[in-house]
Each structure stands twice: as C-alpha cells, then as structure tokens.
Specification:
Blueprint lengths: L7 H8 L27 E4 L5 H13 L5 E5 L4 H9 L4 E4 L4 H19 L1 E7 L6 H15 L7 E5 L6 H5 L20 H7 L1 E2 L5 E3 L12 H15 L2 E6 L7 H5 L4 E7 L2 H17 L6 E8 L10 H8 L4 E5 L2 H10 L11 H19 L2
Parallel strand pairs: 1-2, 2-3, 4-8, 4-9, 5-7, 5-8, 9-10, 10-11
Antiparallel strand pairs: 6-7
Helix pairs in contact: 5-13, 7-8
Length: 370
C-alpha cells in the first residue's frame, strides 16, 4: 500500500517472491474498497516522506486493520519523525531502497508476533492406550473446518505420535517426507518448510503426520519437534495436536504451551486412573491455568443412565468438565478400513452428533476465551 503508487511495484515484487504471501495492492483513495472477506495479515506503507498524507493513511490503516502489524518504508527520517513512528507503534521502519531480505524478515516477524497472540492450539491427549484420541482428533479437525473457521482461515492436525503416525494411516495419507533430511539441522525449519511437509485432507484441513520412531530417541528430536510446531502454528489459525499417552522429551513443554486440552479416556477404572495422573501433570505445568476437559469415549447408553455418576466423576476429577462420547464401533471401523473420515460415511451418526455438540457448546467457547 502506497501513498505514491510508483513505489509499490518494487515492494510488491519482493513480497510475492515468498510463495505463502499474496499481495493486495491499494492506495489512500481505495483503502475502503479492499474486500472485507480478505484476511490481511500485515500492512506495508510505502512513501518518500512521513508527511501529513502518509500519517493520514496510517491512521486509516490503524482504523481498518486494527491489530495487524504495520511496516513503514520511506526515505530517511529525522529524530522527531522517528520518535513519532515509535509513538504510533508501527511494527518496523525500513528505508528506501529497501533490501529484499530485510523486508521479508520484517513481514515474517510481524505476522509471527500477531499470530502468536491470535492463533489457537488445542491438544487432544490420550489418557490411556486405546482410548480413541486419534479418531477424536481427526474428526474434531474436520468439524472445525465446517463449523468454526472463517473465510481465509485454516485448520491443521499435527500428529505427535511419531511411533505410529496413526493420523496419516487412519486417513490413508501416509507422508513420505524423510525427516532425516532436516533432523541434523532443525534450525533450518521455517514457514516454507511447513508448506513442504503438509498434506491436505479432502475436507480442507492440513495434516502433519509422520511415522518416524527414531525421533523419540534422537538427540535433535526435541528441537526438531518444537520448531516444526512453531512453524505449523504460524501457518494456521487453529491447530489440533494429537498427543499420545506415553512420555516423550517434548511432551511437557508442548502441553504447557497449548491454549486448551481435551483428555480422552474410557469408562473403566484403569483408564480413569491413568487419566487422573495425566490431569494432575497438566495442571502442574502452568499453575492450573490450562483449560482441560475430559471426554469419556466409547460410552454405551444404558437404560438407567451411565455407570459413572456425576458424583463419582466429581469425586475423581473435581470441577473439570466431563463429557460422554457415544460408542459407534461400526462407523469407526468402516472409516478406518476405508481410510476416510467418519463424516464421509454418515453425517448423522451418534458419534458425530456427540462430537459436534462438544465442539460447539464447550470446546469452541473455551478456545475463544483464551
């Protein structure tokens, strides 16, 4: 965006060399004509002087794109003008002729800072082996595409069970990318790398799932996983993490950083005890500030209610909300055998109705509150 149109060409050309960036060009007279449905992640204002026209344009941008990082590109400024920019809280100021690498870095850091505050990460954690957390995570990501995100936003499913890579196998989307190409130099991981390793599911969400058991013991595994998660989180407004029940080097750090968490368990005593241990561990990571909800999966309907009463659940888990997810073995088995989502077989199944209710009445409000 420029107050002097001839300066826009060079800026636009530089930014569009990055595959994940798309430029929407405008000027002071057409700012209000920018499509309201277009997601704007950063604004670059280009001009020669920090004059009244540029300041007026900056105020318009602040009003129309509140919260987005603003980068100013101009000729050299004096001390008073520089102080004025600081007061206006612009993200960065660059001088003409702008260096391409400086402009790209400024845009990337501006977007990263904004997205850290706005993008949401939800962990689906298996409270015990075989609880069905992967199936739940796969369908949650599917439902978020159709019920939560706005135009231009995206959802990712990141599978942290590198021992099995079950998310990819469940959807017949096995990722062939060899992570050993990058494991020795994890510092090379960036947003472009995230685009390279992602798979896109038919219904619209992105999957990051790898069967790489060697990551569990590799000396660089910890740094690799955290850098991958950071890159993925910056790319997507919502990220669902499928976290297995077993301990890994990075598990606590990942859980300590999420916005909210769903613990998936079953209605038998060993599973509930394992889940209680996991719950206590999560509570200890951030002084109990992580919103946690428990889903008791594979629940069978009974004539006289559940075998787990509300009083018993409160005795076990205190004030942590608990939800029962209907058992639907035939649906889940067919979906796994065919490598498709449960929703592609039946949109009205007991399982999906229960999960949709959980998403809309409990999970989404929890995410939006963070």
């Amino acid at each position: 965006m420029s107050s002097e149109a001839e300066l826009s060409d060079g800026i636009e050309h530089v930014i569009e060399t990055v595959p994940q960036f798309r430029v929407v060009r405008s000027n002071a007279n057409a700012l209000d004509k920018v499509d309201k449905s277009t997601r704007i992640d950063a604004v670059v204002l280009s001009g020669h002087e920090l004059n009244s026209d540029m300041l007026e344009l900056l105020n318009q941008v602040r009003f129309q794109f509140s919260g987005q990082p603003v980068i100013i590109v101009s000729d050299k400024l004096d001390e008073d003008q520089t102080r004025q920019l600081i007061k206006l809280q612009v993200h960065d100021w660059l001088t003409h002729p702008v260096k391409p690498e400086s402009l790209i870095k400024s845009v990337e850091t501006g977007i990263r800072g904004a997205r850290i505050d706005t993008n949401r990460v939800h962990a689906v954690v298996s409270g015990s082996g075989g609880a069905g957390a992967t199936t739940l995570a796969i369908s949650l990501a599917d439902l978020m595409v159709s019920h939560v995100i706005k135009k231009g936003e995206s959802v990712a499913l990141f599978d942290l069970d590198f021992a099995t890579g079950n998310c990819g196998y469940s959807l017949d989307m096995v990722n062939s990318y060899q992570l050993d190409k990058i494991i020795a130099t994890p510092q090379r991981i960036d947003a472009e790398f995230a685009n390279l390793i992602q798979e896109k599911q038919r219904t619209g969400y992105h999957i990051y799932s790898f069967k790489r058991p060697e990551l569990l013991t590799d000396a660089n595994g910890y740094e690799l996983v955290l850098r991958m998660l950071d890159a993925v989180n910056l790319q997507h407004e919502y990220t669902i993490l499928d976290i297995p029940y077993y301990e890994t080097e990075w598990r606590d750090d990942v859980l300590g950083a999420v916005n909210s968490c769903t613990l998936v368990t079953e209605a038998n005593l060993p599973a509930l005890k394992h889940t209680l241990d996991t719950l206590e561990k999560i509570k200890s990571l951030r002084d109990g500030e992580i919103p946690v909800q428990i889903v008791i999966n594979k629940s069978k309907s009974r004539l006289f209610g559940s075998k787990l009463s509300a009083a018993r659940l409160k005795e076990l888990f205190g004030d942590v909300p608990c939800y029962f997810m209907p058992r639907d073995d035939d649906l889940i088995e067919e979906a796994l055998d065919r490598g498709v989502l449960p929703s592609e077989i039946s949109q009205r199944s007991r399982f999906l109705r229960g999960l949709k209710k959980y998403l809309t009445t409990s999970l989404t409000p929890s995410l939006e509150a963070q």
